[in-house]
Design a protein that fits this description.
Elements lengths: L3 H21 L3 H26 L3 H31 L13
Helix pairs in contact: 1-2, 2-3
Length: about 100
Amino acid sequence: MIPLEYYLSLSAVLFATGVIGVLTRRNAIIVFMSIELMLNAVNLSLVAFSQYLGSTTGQVLVFFVMAVAAAESAIGLAIIIALFRNKQTLNIDELNLLKW
């Protein structure tokens, strides 16, 4: 049996990697992948706590989070493709669509 702390440590490392990716990278695809990495870190924590507590509630919640993440991935990639077609770049600093 693997202790709960190992799962939580791995989840924290994955989440921190995702946060660093969002804060330091300027490519929209990399930022998008970092957000997905953070969602997977949270899912790992939910499954670990669910197993530790002997309940299936966390695993059911992970199923719903994964469904929302799949929908978010489809919509997010469609937005990124549309931005690339209009601006010919994926650099977040150059995507200033709300400016006049």
